[in-house]
Each structure stands twice: as C-alpha cells, then as structure tokens.
Amino acid sequence: xxxxxxxxxxxxxxxxxxxxxxxxxxxxxxxxxxxxxxxxxxxxxxxxxxxxxxxxxxxxxxxxxxxxxxxxxxxxxxxxxxxxxxxxxxxxxxxxxxxxxxxxxxxxxxxxxxxxxxxxxxxxxxxxxxxxxxxxxxxxxxxxxxxxxxxxxxxxxxxxxxxxxxxxxxxxxxxxxxxxxxxxxxxxxxxxxxxxxxxxxxxxxxxxxxxxxxxxxxxxxxxxxxxxxxxxxxxxxxxxxxxxxxxxxxxxxxxxxxxxxxxxxxxxx
Length: 269
Known about the structure:
This protein is mostly beta strands. It is built from two helices and 20 strands.
C-alpha cells in the first residue's frame, strides 16, 4: 500500500473512531450523572444509617471487655471475636445482633435548655456466637470505624435506605410558622461543613421529625438581616429531642448555630 492510500484509509477510519469515542463519553456521562438531576436515589444510605453519630440517651450496660484469645489487643476489625460480660439478670442468645457504638464527645442538647448529652458513633455490627453463664462471645460482621475494647453494645435496628431526590435549596425563612432548630454538633468537631457531611440538630421525634424528611438550612450571620437559604439536608437518624442529618446540597459553608426548618412531611419508619 502506498503512503497516499494509507493516509486515505486512515481518514476513512477516523470518523468511525470519533463516533465510537463520542458514544463512550455519552454513556459515561449518563452513568456519572449528578445525583441532584436523577429522578430518585438513596438519599439515606446504609452508611448513613449504620455508621453515623447520634445522641446516646443513656449509658448502655454492655461493652466489649476483651478480644478472644488476645486480652492485650485493643483494636479490633472485621472477623474478630470479643467477649462481653452479662449484667445481673441480663441475657443474650446465639445469632443475636448488636450495634457497636463509641462515645466520643458531649454537646449541649439544645440551645433552649441547659445540660450536656453524649455523642456516640455507630462503629459496626456484631453477631453473638455463643453464650456462657455470665458472658457471651460475638464476632464483628461489619465494621465502619475503629472498634476497640470499651466500646458499648446496643440492640441492632434494621432500617432500609430511603429513596428520594434532593429537593434543592430554596424557600424563605418562616418566622414562627415552621418547625425550627439549629446545628449543635459537627463530625470531628469541625468548624464548618459542606455536602455529604453529617450534623446533629436540636429537634427530634418529640417535635414530629421523621427519618427521610428534608429540611432547609438558613444562615443569619447578622441579626438585623433576613436569614438566607444556604443548604438542603435530610434526616438520617431521629432521637427523642435531637436528630442526625446529612447535607445533600449547599451553596455556602455551614456552621454551628445555623437554622433549619422542615420543608416536607417525609416517610415514617
């Protein structure tokens, strides 16, 4: 084949190759389509439900005492087994599931009340393998953070992810007309957060809050100026007077003390 004919053949092939690449790019763009433009997706994921932080209402009786066959070990991971002492009158059974939680900090429960509450992280899930007279052996099935001796155990609660759509940022602040709360705690004591981060708010089940509800966040750095909508969050865990939310979208950094208002009823679980 001459050099000229070879170049001609190449020119003929180029449009096909370009079309093929264009098709691949289009397919990739469809796969990586931003969540906010999708019809529905998991606005509350398994990670949100099983690995986030929350207010621990009271100190649990059960805790990890020691690793099986290695009492000197402190840090545990998936597949490791550990012993837990049973309190007087306590009981456990093989196959039972427990959530592993770690108390990490204290924070004001509400700006309207005095007093502090314990902030705890869900660190994973463990299943009881065997039960003896005054203790039981469990295996860590799935860890989502550091599991150490001293962590507490609370009953496991199976909750499905919540499907929905980010409703976006909008609306104006409704003075005295909508359920209103504030941010009281950020992950790792951060000073400000953005999309994807978790936060604690000072309203909860007693205020009518439910899992899956979406709320608008308002910033009001100056009291003599109106509050401005800056973010949209979704409820991922509900306590009696507090709740954990995840930031779905935001147009500015969020800070402790920012206001939140409920924007839709949301599903009830």
